[in-house]
Specification:
Elements lengths: L1 H26 L7 H11 L25 E3 L7 H11 L11 E3 L7 H10 L8 E3 L7 H9 L4 E2 L2 H15 L3 H10 L2 H6 L5 E3 L2 E4 L7 E3 L10 H10 L8 E3 L10 H10 L9 H10 L1
Parallel strand pairs: 1-2, 2-3, 3-7, 7-8
Antiparallel strand pairs: 4-6, 5-6
Helix pairs in contact: 3-4, 4-5, 5-9, 9-10
Length: 288
Amino acid sequence: MSKKRTERGREKDRGHAEEDHSKVAADDYHCTGNLEADFPGLCALLGMKEIPAVIAKNPATESTIGKNLAHLSLRNNRIGDEGACLIGAALSTPATSNRHLVSLNLAFNSICDVGAAHIAKGLRLNRALLYLSLSNNRIGDKGAACLAEFLGPFALTHEEIVERRKALLERDHPPPMERATVEKQGSPGEKTSTRLFLIRRNGQVVLPGNSSLMYLNLSGNRISEQSLPLFLSSLRTQSEGGGLRRLYLQRNRFPLDCKHYVELQELMAPRDLLHDTTAVHMEEEQGA
């Protein structure tokens, strides 16, 4: 009896030792960064005999914002600069751009200058969004400067230029299987007419500002009078019949009778044919 107990004890010790060894080996495993290679290796170290198949998805092909989502409200959700960074990247990057979202409500959150800069960066190459509310956040003059910049002409970064050239090459020289489809859609002249015109200025490639956004609400933030000339400068470059139609800047850190704000109101009045402020009042009441 004593011998059998001793043998059983030894077998248990061996089992525990093997289990501990597998745990140590799994913990010490150095990932290569390739999921299809790392997953089977870790399963083998853990002693799994049947390893399930793994198919890695390319995150660059899947937008963070839903593929066919057109209207999104994230008001009053305590979203800060980190969340705004993700939202900005979902709106556009130098390589991709969301083409479905037309309205985005980020009112009554905690977005500061850094977050506003990320949102503005996402709107540099986005031409789908029509409505954006950033009212009642914590945006100051630095964030306002970024938001004013994309409304007027701005210089492309090196990365944006490279990605744009790649896109144009792919459009002009599609793969053989896609070439017939492209030719059916229109002639090369028709394709060229849909491109945005680029301007070379002082050694930089300048892109016309975002004239797709029609509604921008920045009321209830921390913007001072020094930011108003930036909005004036950008809006004056937008062509007649296009560009921003409504810009709300009430309840910021400047008097409503100051010179630049009066000039802004005079500039925007012909654009906003309805002169409707009820939407702002409803937004303020619902966010309280």
